[in-house]
Amino acid sequence: MSGGTGDRGLLLVTGGAGFIGSAIVAGALEAGWRVRVLDSLRADVHGGEPDVDPRVDFVRGDVRDAAVVDAALAGVDAVCHQAAKVGLGVDFQDAPDYVDSNEHGTAVLLAAMDRAGVDRLVVASSMVVYGEGSYRTSTGETERPAPRRIADLDAGVFDPRDAAGELLEPQLISEEAPLDPRNVYAITKLTQEHLATSWARSTGGRAAALRYHNVYGPGMPQNTPYAGVASLFRSALQRGEAPRVYEDGAQRRDFVHVRDVAAANLAALDWTAEQPPDTSRAFNVGSGTVHTIGEMAEALAREAGGPEPVVTGEYRAGDVRHVTASSERLRTELRWEPSMSFEEGMREFATAPLRAAVTS
Ligand SMILES: NC(=O)c1ccc[n+]([C@@H]2O[C@H](COP(=O)([O-])OP(=O)(O)OC[C@H]3O[C@@H](n4cnc5c(N)ncnc54)[C@H](O)[C@@H]3O)[C@@H](O)[C@H]2O)c1
To answer: In whole angstroms, what is the distance from residue 224 CA to residue 231 CA?
Structure first.
């Protein structure tokens, strides 16, 4: 991350006490931003008081509270919106909380930005807006397969096939691909993007939506229903247990380091300063290197000196098989490059501190 270049202005990071938000805060301070954080410290994600850099103006509050947001926006030049209820959740009973936290919360924030005349926004979106990845048929056409059938999953047929039963070949997905959010969380991430676009159009704002791939790195949450797969494996190893890998372990993903994601946010913030009013654009954020979930489990187990992963053949209904991003747009338009290789990142993550566990 580049060093400071004087005062860039005051940046509000919502969710700045979270896993990705705190990496953005660290990067922003280093790059010369003054930083305010607005975070409610959700009890279901924070197991203790987070470490907050003393240079940060920390506001404990909820993005759904208009009065709190109005106060937090005083003097702010740009907003980096990370606050959200994340992950797949436990079951459909989580739906109202997802919609309220993510959709309503974003609407309250954007309305307050309009009142305050703040016109630069970066919003955290996710690869989950695509649903299943993009594939090529044996005759070279692009195909986006429907959700896999339970009968196939039960029979251990994990890879999507075309109508003739031929295996489909996974490809990188680009920002132009049709969107197909397949669970409530994914729907709320897409709605956040649509809200940002609508805000930009009606207020003359500039918005970048960053579709993060599988983010990992120090400070990741531990074993919660909302945690990502890297943290589930890492938590198992910390308990001395083998990582349990679903399906056959060949699911393809792009694991991107949290400091690279923070750098993408800073590049996107700079980009918003250069755009004309009424601009909104989505960017995939991935390392550009495809790995399987099995490879990730093996790398972590090796680096942690823990037991070998167990490939269980079990599955979670609703999981997508392969989804990997093309981050060309981010590289060319935002001049962003990932700095952390998979090998180096997994070596660091295998023993990196995780966020304090939630006890209740
Ligand atoms: N971790 C990933 O792999 C990943 C992937 C794609 C997208 N994202 C997105 O990145 C963002 C950050 O995710 P994270 O992994 O750092 O999660 P996190 O749970 O560690 O951080 C979210 C932070 O937001 C706060 N928060 C939640 N709701 C709030 C509200 N209503 N008001 C104020 N603060 C609130 C929480 O207390 C927490 O500190 C989220 O928008 C998430 O959807 C994450």
So the answer is: 9
- Report, as ranges of residue numbers, the positions in the chain whose pLDDT lies below 50: 1-3
Give the closest residue (by CA) to ligand 1 atom 18. 18
Ligand 1 neighbourhood includes 101 CB (under 6 angstroms): yes
Substitution candidate for ligand 1 out of 12, 13, 20 with most atoms within 8 A of CB: 20
Q: Is 77 in the pocket of ligand 1 (CB under 6 A)?
A: no
Residues making up the chain, counted from first to last: 360
> Could you give the angle at which helices 342-351 and 293-304 cross, rounded to 10 degrees?
50
**Which tokens sit at 156?**
């251990």
d(CA 35, CA 312): 45
Which helix (H) or strand (E) segment holds residue 64: the answer is none
**How many A from CA of 292 to the centre of ligand 1?**
24
Q: What confidence tens digit (pLDDT) does each residue in 101-142 have? A: 999 999 999 999 999 999 999 999 999 999 999 999 988 999
pLDDT number for residue 2: 44
**CA 149 to mean position of chain CA atoms:** 27
Verify whether ligand 1 is closer than 6 Å to residue 124 (CB atom).
Answer: yes
Give 64-93 pLDDT, tens digit per residue.
Answer: 999 999 999 999 999 999 999 998 777 899
Q: What is the pTM of this model?
A: 0.96
CA distance 343 to 357: 26
| HSE of 225, CA atoms in CB hemisphere, 13 A | 11
Q: Provide the pairing of β-strand 279-285 with 244-245.
A: unpaired
The whole-number pLDDT of residue 225 equals 59
For residue 83, the ligand 1 atom closest to its alpha carbon is 24
d(CA 27, CA 30): 5
Residue 5's pLDDT is what?
Answer: 55
Spacing, Cα 188 to ligand 1 middle (Å): 13
